[in-house]
Design a protein that fits this description.
The chain is mainly α. The protein has 8 helices and no strands.
């Protein structure tokens, strides 16, 4: 078990080093980018990036999700996690309890109305707060 955990950390370390070397490679007259710049690009702390690159630790799932936004879905395999499964909207509705579908559509209409009248993007933090509040209101 300990060997498996060690192998997963080393696999992630090697994969992340390859990605860092790609990122940091000078282009034309530009200089190579630092690990601190890479950490900022990824949205993680330089200390954690150093730990990952040294093989001292591996990221938690929430960090892997954040890294996937910049590095692609290969990070899931490299870090030893399953990639999130994409669910189609029809599959989502098919699995929703029938008594909740009306509440779901009413909440979507209210979310669209509130965000458009306030000029808020649903992908913004403010939009997410509206979504959570409306879903709570409808018991979703």
């Amino acid at each position: 078990m300990l060997e498996l955990a060690y192998n997963e950390v080393m696999k992630f370390r090697d994969w992340l080093w390859d990605k860092y070397l790609e990122y940091s490679k000078p282009v034309g007259r530009t200089r190579a980018k630092s690990q601190a710049e890479y950490a900022r690009y990824l949205g993680i702390s330089p200390v954690n990036l150093g730990r990952y690159l040294n093989g001292d630790s591996s990221p938690e799932y929430s960090v892997v999700v954040k890294l996937a936004e910049k590095l692609g879905n290969g990070v899931y395999d490299a870090a030893g996690f399953n990639q999130p499964r994409q669910v189609s909207f029809l599959e989502f509705l098919d699995n929703m309890p029938r008594d909740r579908i009306t509440a779901f559509f009413a909440s979507v209409c209210e979310i669209n109305s509130l965000t458009s009248e306030k000029g808020i993007d649903t992908d913004s933090p403010e939009g997410f707060e509206i979504i959570k509040a409306v879903f709570r209101k409808y018991g979703l």
